[in-house]
Specification:
GO terms for molecular function: inositol hexakisphosphate kinase activity. The protein is an alpha+beta fold. It is about 20% helix and about 30% strand.
């Protein structure tokens, strides 16, 4: 079964788009270092981290109007390797919040229907009301939608629709909260990895020096209350 990935509306920092897979699961592009972290995580630390739920294959889809969406293919994903309870494996419980879905369209496969989000409508409804005024739904942070737009544009310009991308599936730790308060902190006095290019190292060192990272070892990237 195909699963439409929605923007995660409570994202407050970062530049990579975080997506909603289902009510209790978020989805993000796979980074090898992050995957290694979750696969080798000591049992004693798991209570302090989101549950790792496995990997799923994702592809970009463009409809006749040029709207871009990301579709997850659970059947192509790898099984949950984190030792979780197999009865709650995410691709057996594809739940939907239909209030976030505005339209539907037929997939290229006969007889199959896929749900599609009109991203422009969805974004505008979160940011403005019918009169163009700021909406009252302040619990929705617009940063995630900004990242999602940029991510779709990057994928569309670099890859064709048939290319499969691997994404991580992680527990949505705020799924039980009606109005989650979130704080995104960047920890450490050094932000670049050992494999970073000289240009990237210089950019990250400068950012640390111009913020509290160099002096305090921590800086606030974003938050919502």
């Amino acid at each position: 079964r195909a699963v439409l990935l929605q923007p995660f509306v409570h994202q407050v920092g970062g530049h990579t788009s975080m997506l909603t897979y289902d009510e209790h699961t978020i989805c993000k592009p796979l980074v090898s270092q992050e995957l290694s972290f979750y696969e080798s995580l000591p049992l004693a630390m798991r209570q302090f981290t989101p549950q790792y739920k496995g990997i799923v294959s994702v592809h970009l889809k463009k409809d006749s109007l040029g709207n871009l969406t990301l579709i997850a293919s659970p059947s192509l994903g790898q099984p949950d390797s984190a030792g979780g309870d197999p009865t709650v494996t995410v691709w057996h419980k594809c739940k939907w919040s239909h209030t976030q879905v505005t339209k539907s369209f037929k997939d290229s496969c006969p007889g199959k229907m896929l749900l599609r989000t009109d991203l422009q409508y969805h974004t505008d409804s979160l940011l403005e009301d019918a009169n163009g005024k700021q909406a009252e739904r302040k619990s929705y942070n617009p940063w995630g939608l900004h990242c999602h737009r940029q991510h779709l544009n990057r994928m569309s310009s670099k890859h064709n629709e048939n290319k499969l991308h691997q994404f991580l599936l992680l527990e949505n730790v705020v799924s039980k909260c009606s109005y989650p308060c979130i704080l995104d902190l960047k920890m450490g006095t050094r932000q670049h990895g050992d494999d970073a290019s000289e240009e990237k190292k210089a950019r990250h060192i400068k950012k640390c020096e111009q913020s509290t990272s160099a002096s305090l070892g921590v800086r606030i990237c974003g938050m919502q209350v």
